[in-house]
């Protein structure tokens, strides 16, 4: 080191060598690169965690509001209490669940003692986000910072109350701290290795630093990350390996977030399945209808070559196809006589109502086109949009066949169920008008090839 500096101070003039030039160049660059990675990783992770918290809270609040509306109109106090308690118990970061009427009086709360009291607003409210009709605010209650979600409870276009759900922020703060510690440790290691590598580097260092820079930009831009090749066993090679590990750690954390999002999606899907099953149970004549339609649809889908994700999407769309009927009043849904024109219009709104429900959760939106179109006719005379032919989603055309078949082979108050063959003859009579000719033929062939089903066997498809 003495010779390194004495050689540069010969004749009283300082002449920096290539190593010092590289050191002066690489240290600021490395600091910028590491800071960029650390800042980008922190921002991406923090934003993802915050977005996940807000979307999860909004979706749960909407689900509570949807369920509470029916229970309030049915004056089901036990059901309201159970809804509040079970929602609170479903996740440790839910602080409380309150359901209040239009007069702002608490009608249900996970803490029974709050029932009957007026709902007091927080002294400090900071708006955070809006999700359709749900508002997310940061509030202070009992010396705790909470994220509070308020969703209006509406039924038949009238406001009957408000569902309030509060989430704690401890888990979000803890996750952010853990990520920051990991990034700071990795950044410190990288900066130390950069200093050592700069002192011993050769002209090749600039090429390898450029690769690191490109890797940082690629990672920060969210592009697919490819590990940087390690071409040496020196400090810069070790730095490259550390960078690759740090990038893999960030990507692993991203994968963990995506895995949690998938778990959350499955939980939400389960809740929607419960709602769909509850809807079927409102009418003894349609009990298990959605499940039978899903099984018939999937059987036809398999015979038509669907598999994997496409088959899963078909099954879920079939389960959700009548979800909008949760907003259809009982006096219309359960009416034993033919519907009036006004009631018929209200019943025909259920595909649009199902669209509104699925719109509440981003990951359920991919099922909207199928749910909305399952009553469209092949000749364009269906509803709600009058689509025809190939304009109708393929999955919706399959579900329409299974839906019609199940409806015709199920007893109703105003008529007895048709036999399997009678129902198939009716479907084939409408091939080319209500149904796709090719799909109608394939459906009839499938049902005739299935083992004969008596009523008990057919009903067991819903189990």
């Amino acid at each position: 080191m003495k010779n390194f500096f004495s050689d540069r101070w010969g004749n009283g003039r300082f002449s920096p060598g290539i190593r010092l030039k590289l050191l002066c160049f690489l240290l600021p660059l490395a600091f910028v690169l590491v800071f960029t990675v650390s800042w980008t990783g922190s921002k991406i992770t923090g934003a993802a965690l915050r977005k996940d918290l807000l979307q999860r809270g909004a979706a749960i609040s909407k689900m509570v509001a949807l369920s509470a509306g029916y229970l309030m109109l049915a004056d089901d106090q036990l059901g309201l209490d159970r809804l509040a308690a079970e929602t609170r118990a479903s996740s440790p970061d839910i602080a409380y669940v309150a359901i209040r009427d239009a007069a702002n009086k608490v009608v249900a709360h996970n803490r029974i003692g709050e029932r009957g009291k007026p709902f007091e607003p927080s002294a400090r409210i900071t708006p955070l986000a809006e999700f359709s009709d749900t508002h997310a605010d940061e509030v202070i209650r009992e010396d705790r910072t909470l994220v509070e979600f308020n969703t209006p409870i509406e039924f038949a276009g009238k406001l009957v109350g408000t569902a309030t759900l509060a989430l704690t922020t401890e888990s979000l703060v803890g996750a952010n701290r853990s990520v920051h510690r990991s990034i700071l440790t990795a950044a410190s290691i990288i900066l130390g290795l950069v200093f050592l590598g700069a002192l011993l580097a050769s002209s090749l260092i600039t090429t390898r630093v450029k690769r690191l820079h490109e890797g940082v930009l690629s990672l920060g831009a969210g592009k697919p990350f490819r590990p940087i090749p390690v071409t040496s066993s020196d400090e810069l090679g070790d730095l490259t390996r550390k960078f690759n590990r740090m990038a893999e750690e960030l990507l692993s954390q991203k994968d963990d977030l995506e895995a949690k999002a998938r778990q959350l999606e499955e939980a939400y899907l389960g809740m929607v399945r419960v709602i769909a099953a509850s809807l079927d149970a409102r009418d003894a004549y349609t009990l298990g209808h959605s499940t039978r339609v899903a099984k018939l649809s999937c059987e036809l889908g398999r015979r038509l070559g669907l598999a994997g994700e496409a088959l899963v999407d078909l099954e879920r769309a079939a389960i959700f196809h009548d979800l909008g009927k949760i907003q259809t009043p009982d006096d219309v849904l359960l009416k034993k006589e033919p519907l009036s024109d006004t009631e018929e219009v209200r019943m025909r709104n259920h595909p649009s109502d199902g669209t509104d429900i699925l719109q509440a959760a981003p990951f359920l939106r991919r099922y909207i086109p199928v749910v909305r179109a399952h009553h469209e006719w092949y000749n364009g005379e269906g509803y709600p949009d009058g689509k025809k032919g190939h304009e109708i989603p393929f999955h919706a055309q399959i579900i329409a066949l299974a839906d019609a078949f199940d409806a015709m082979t199920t007893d109703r108050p105003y008529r007895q169920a048709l036999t399997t063959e009678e129902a198939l003859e009716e479907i084939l009579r409408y091939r080319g008008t209500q149904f796709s000719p090719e799909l109608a033929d394939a459906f009839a062939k499938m049902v005739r090839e299935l083992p004969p089903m008596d009523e008990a066997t057919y009903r067991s498809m819903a189990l």
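The chain is about 60% helix and 10% strand. The longest helix spans residues 18-73.
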